[in-house]
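FORM 12-B: Structure-to-Sequence Request
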């Protein structure tokens, strides 16, 4: 590893120096991955610091988490005159960092490679990132995007011509994944309720519906309920095809339609409350607008 350390850029060596400072500040006997993470946050005007700050990592809060995280692992404090050594997990991170650089044909090892090495280590042992509520996939994608936009053939990374590093695009991709997950969750709940209400209407409410002469009304409610529950799943799938936030509105409109249209028909069927008949068209309009948005997205897609 000593020979490989010669390939570390001044910024990467600065990270390791800051890691030692953090270990000394916390009176720990060795430099651990927690200290390395703190060093990344402290490294001013760097991509690693920007990424971690964007992810919500602040130095003082992170120090508290690292102190608690390492309290069970580092029982002894540094003795005066004794050099602080690298922990086993940090050595593994450094090996991963060298591998990240080598796999890209880079002769130097920059802080970006170090952070990718840490993320790679956290994939198998995510306790530190979990404690800080950091998403390793987002950090990994941002670092990879930054590296692709820079030339590492010299002593320090230089931005490539005609290649932009767009953090907003990466954040949008994460938001798109969150939207898809949310729509799937909503769709699952809507479908489960639709099946449950259909079964309850066929058995538990059969006498009431017949007495109110509302069997067909209730069935209409469940029919549109289930159709648009499936429609929410369709929107979730379409969100993986089209990068368009308008699709979320289609999903939310379908949900609103289920609540207003089918919900009003359910209440009308059970209670014969006539005002519910005036609410149903609002839900129907929500259904229609949702389908129009889907068509609009497809029509305007690039």
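FORM 12-B RESPONSE
SEQUENCE OUT:
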């Amino acid at each position: 590893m000593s020979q490989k350390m010669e390939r570390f850029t001044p910024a990467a060596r600065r990270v390791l120096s800051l890691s030692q400072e953090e270990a000394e500040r916390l009176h720990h006997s060795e430099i651990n991955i927690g200290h390395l993470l703190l060093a990344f946050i402290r490294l001013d005007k760097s991509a690693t610091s920007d990424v971690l700050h964007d992810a919500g990592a602040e130095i003082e809060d992170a120090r508290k988490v690292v102190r608690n995280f390492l309290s069970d692992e580092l029982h002894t404090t540094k003795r005066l005159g004794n050099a602080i050594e690298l922990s086993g997990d940090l050595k593994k991170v450094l090996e991963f960092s060298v591998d990240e650089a080598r796999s890209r044909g880079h002769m130097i090892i920059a802080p970006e490679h170090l952070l990718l090495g840490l993320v790679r280590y956290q994939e198998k042992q995510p306790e530190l990132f979990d404690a800080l509520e950091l998403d390793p996939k987002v950090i990994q994608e941002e670092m990879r995007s930054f590296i692709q936009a820079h030339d590492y053939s010299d002593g320090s990374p230089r931005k490539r011509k005609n290649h932009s590093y767009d953090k907003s695009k990466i954040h949008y991709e994460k938001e798109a994944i969150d939207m898809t997950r949310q729509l799937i969750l909503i769709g699952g709940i809507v479908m489960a309720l639709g099946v449950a209400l259909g079964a309850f209407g066929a058995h538990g409410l059969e006498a009431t519906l017949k007495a109110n002469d509302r069997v067909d009304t209730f069935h209409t409610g469940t029919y549109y309920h289930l159709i648009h529950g499936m429609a929410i799943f369709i929107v979730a799938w379409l969100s993986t095809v089209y990068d368009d936030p308008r699709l979320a509105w289609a999903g939310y409109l379908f949900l609103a339609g289920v609540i207003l249209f089918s919900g009003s028909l359910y209440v009308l069927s059970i209670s014969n409350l006539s005002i519910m008949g005036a609410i149903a068209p609002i839900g129907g309009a929500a259904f229609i607008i949702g389908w129009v948005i889907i068509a609009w997205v497809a029509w305007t897609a690039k």
